[in-house]
Design brief:
Blueprint lengths: L10 E4 L6 H31 L6 H18 L2 H7 L6 E3 H34 L4 H4 L2 H27 L8 E2 L6 H5 L7 H35 L3 H29 L5 H28 L2 H28 L1
Parallel strand pairs: 1-3
Antiparallel strand pairs: 1-2
Helix pairs in contact: 1-2, 1-10, 1-11, 2-4, 2-10, 4-6, 4-8, 4-9, 6-8, 8-9, 9-10
Length: 323
């Protein structure tokens, strides 16, 4: 039957991660734990960076954006995945599936661009500290952050529109725990080779370009670090970059592994495993990495915790007096 005359499907069924009930219960608890760490950790970073005046700097402005991205990025897939652990039929509407593809790639591509902007910020901070506040002024920071969001949006929009135009007449089983573009394209009733080429070339170009720019920033940073005479000064300078570098390695490693390789049956199975890392684990690790390796953030966190505790004590004392 010609696909021009076929009836389009209205929903997709998700394969999920496993059908073993006991394993589903373990995975539900595991993923819920990491999702809560993601929410609490990133919301705490956002609150602290707004509350603490000493953190009103370009570095923490970008970190605020990164925390917001991590919350949204993980929320595109994780709540649905958690609900599906207790659903016999893991169904998502066609519109919901396309929306999930769009927001997943929108937020993911925005994050890799933002990480490049953050590496440039670290390069200026270490390479030109006397002119840092002049170069990384508020206007430039807003432009870099907004540019990351806008570029990520239009990059995702290209893939979303191209995928939505394809006919889907069945089968409708997505071999993944969410609607990612590669397993969805496998179900298209027409030739999707152009979509896959665009995915490899456009997404591949975006990922490799931002990665090369990030590595270039760190190449120059390493030269500046070697010029620092004291071990303590070198250690302090490196500590401002190490957290960001760890996040870059985690995100870029899984993104390049997933989207630049050719799409095969074996690769789709590997993509599911890799997707767990960058949708569940990495967004939860980011706030831990940034807080544990950042003295200013730890100090601000403690200060905020003390102020909250002090406020609670005052409320309790006022309540006791009223009694």
């Amino acid at each position: 039957m010609s696909w021009e005359n076929c009836t389009s499907i209205t929903n997709f069924a998700l394969l999920g991660l496993t059908d073993v009930v006991k394993l589903q219960e373990i995975l539900f608890a595991f993923f819920l734990f990491f999702y809560m760490i993601n929410l609490v950790g990133n919301l705490s970073i956002m609150a602290v960076t707004i509350k603490e005046p000493s953190l009103h700097t370009p570095m923490y402005y970008f970190l605020w954006n990164l925390s917001l991205l991590d919350i949204c990025y993980s929320s595109v897939t994780v709540p649905k995945m958690l609900a599906d652990f207790f659903s016999h039929y893991k169904v998502i509407s066609f519109a919901g599936c396309i929306s999930q593809i769009h927001f997943f790639h929108f937020l993911g591509s925005t994050e890799v661009i933002l990480l490049t902007a953050m590496s440039y910020d670290r390069y200026v901070a270490i390479g030109n500290p006397l002119r840092y506040s002049h170069i990384m002024n508020a206007q430039l920071c807003r432009q870099l952050a907004l540019g990351s969001w806008v570029t990520g949006y239009f990059h995702s929009l290209l893939h979303t529109v191209m995928a939505a135009k394809l006919p889907f007449c069945g089968p409708n089983l997505v071999k993944h725990f969410f609607c990612d573009i590669k397993p969805v394209l496998k179900l298209a009733s027409a030739d999707a080779s152009l979509n896959l080429k665009l995915l490899t070339r456009v997404t591949g170009t975006l990922a490799t370009t931002t990665l090369l720019l990030t590595l270039l920033s760190y190449l120059f940073i390493s030269k500046f670090l070697l010029k620092i005479q004291t071990t303590e000064g070198r250690k302090r300078a490196f500590s401002t970059c190490s957290a960001h570098l760890i996040v870059v390695i985690l995100l870029y490693g899984t993104a390049i592994f997933t989207y630049i390789r050719p799409s095969t049956q074996d690769s789709l199975e590997q993509d599911r495993a890799a997707a767990v890392l960058f949708t569940v684990i990495t967004p939860a690790l980011n706030p831990i990495i940034y807080t544990l390796r950042n003295k200013d953030m730890k100090k601000a966190m403690k200060k905020l915790a003390k102020s909250i505790k002090f406020g609670q004590m005052n409320v309790c004392s006022i309540t006791d007096q009223n009694k």
